[in-house]
Amino acid sequence: MKQPKFQKSLIAVAVTTLLSSPVVLAQQSENAAVEDGKLERIEVTARRTNESLQEVPVSVSAFGEQELEQSGIEDITELQFKMPNTTFQVSRGTNSTLTAYIRGIGQQDPLWGFEPGVGIYIDDVYVARPQGAVLEVLDVQRVEVLRGPQGTLYGKNTIGGAMKYVTRELTGYNELEIKGTVGTHNQRDLKVSGQTALADNFFIGGAFATLNRDGFGEFVNTGAENYNKELMTGRINAKWLASKDVSVKFAADWTQDDSNARGGHRLQPSLLSTEPALDDVFDSYTAMPTDNSVETEGYSVTVDWDIDSSWAFKSVTAYREGNTDTNIDFDSTVNPVLLVPAVYEDEQTTQEFQLNYSSDRFNFISGLYFYEGEACGAFGTVLGLLDLTIDNGGCVDTSSAALFGQGTYQIDEQWALTLGGRYTRDEKDADVFRYTYAGVKFLDRGDYSADPIAVNSDFSTKADWSKFSPHASIRYQMDPNLMFYASYSNGFKSGGVDMRADVSLNPDAQNPYDPEVVDTYEIGVKSELLDGRLRLNASTFYSDYQDMQVTVQRAVPNGVASQVLNAADSTVKGVELESSFAATSTLNFTGSIGYINAEFDEVAFFNPNTQQVEDVSNRWSFPNTPELTANLGFNQEFTLSGGALVWSGAVSYRDETQIFEEPSPLDEESYSLVNTSLVWYSDSSNWTVGLHAKNVFDKEYRLSGYNFGSTFGENIVTGYYGNPRTVSLSVGYRF
Length: 735
Fold this sequence. Notes:
By secondary structure, the protein is mostly beta strands. It is built from 2 helices and 38 strands. 5% of the residues lie in helices and 58% in strands. The N and C termini lie far apart (52 Å). The model is unreliable at 1-35 (pLDDT under 50).
């Protein structure tokens, strides 16, 4: 269905309002002689040190604890509607696996062996796998999203950008907060957090949440809930002030997600099933259990040592692991056409040492980084109607070491120069198997006494890569409220091994593929105008994206084989604008606009029909990358007897989105979402009551899906959707 003309007009008005309303409202406020407030200073750690958002020559969005609370943000995927050129979404078929794209770069396939293009960090600890990376907002102080390559300070796999989830700092004060939430679809949440001091120099804290919700729909033939939520998560912290110069922090977190595996909505009529088509996109059919379990946990120890007034040392030691056991019915019918049970296991150990220097005119951050990780998994392709099962799995061991440094020299009061670089060496060792069995088997849940009828793959391979990633930027502080910058950044996404390789069809499939590389040039301005009431930040960027990892199909005598090759080059360019405006001491406006033009320059793709390698760049488009994103929000405070009421609202727009590189029935038309909230704070600051309505007009929008066309005798095109309208009421008490 095409978008109504009036909706497009509404979007145009909203975008125009974002650009014009701050100035108009400022003039109205000044003419009325209203006492105005100023915007609060926002501090970020985008460059591994505390700095004002307005002084950092990096495109970064930051969301503080209060803003997250007033907007009713429950997990990090909701932030995509507040930022330009960013996609944070729940992956298809799961409840807690993250699909993240920034400026057109990300990770389409969450299979182990493939690396992300956007780095996720909990404090200073890198989260290597997307499973369990849909982080809930709990005990959080701030979320920062850095756009563009962060190869110098954050390393490989931040080719698109990075997200930093910064937890609340321990202060030693006695604090305890309890918040309960009820809402539509029988939402029942409880969050508890607090901290205290056991001694003058030893603080402890923790947080716990249980988050539950009935499904938005159901599996009609079994009665099981679809799109439900059953999750528990927690964190404990400790901080030891060993001396006036040395502090030691310990952190542990865990998450257990037992929500059902999600069922898709069929976009084409079934060729085999007699069950009626389902109108509700949240209802589905299934021919397999809907059991799903995602467990993650992590531990870290951070040591900070202020050697003297200029030098500081930091050590971050961390371990993380995750386990996923899930089931995905690709065709979403009652017939066992294409069923995929899957298990994932991963663990990682990281160590980072930093030696930093700071003086009046020169700041320098340097360090060593080590990563050891193992990612294993197995999935079965169960073809029940053919009485066949193909089991595919293996492990990838990764060793990575990096040496990095970045320094900023203040040339004079206005000019500052930053230069940096990172040298990384990656080693990967992979084992891959692919066996075909007669009968229906469900991994370790089945009988494996029978030998496979075919060994499609059973090989080991290894590879290593070295890469130097430079960075340079120049900053011009025209006056205290106006800064211009220009930067060059290089980033890369690590190479790997195709864990789906079928060597029986394509012997070359066992060859590792190389890293992707991007060079990004950016020019930006950061400003605070109207006596600190208007913050306006803008940037334009140009990226040369090379050696993109592409799954290439090859025709062979016994079928079609796939292989991951560095077969594409592209150009990405765009503009981003973010604005905040304090119209009065009680009324604020926020907004952003992102425009991106991402085009493939060349894609070498093997056509099985012509038996030739062809350039298909004219047919391909960037997935999960809408050309235009925009949002406009407000925040109004009212003084009431006994407290203050904050009313906030926002409308966000996302342009047409292509789900995969080639056009498919899954591609989503443009859409807008409206959210609004009312939050009351008592005068004593003890009580908080929040009423939140999201997707107010109950817009139906598709996020992802599977597109196999007519395969195995069935139409297999299934979609997964964003949340419908929800309303929740939260009551919190702080001691």
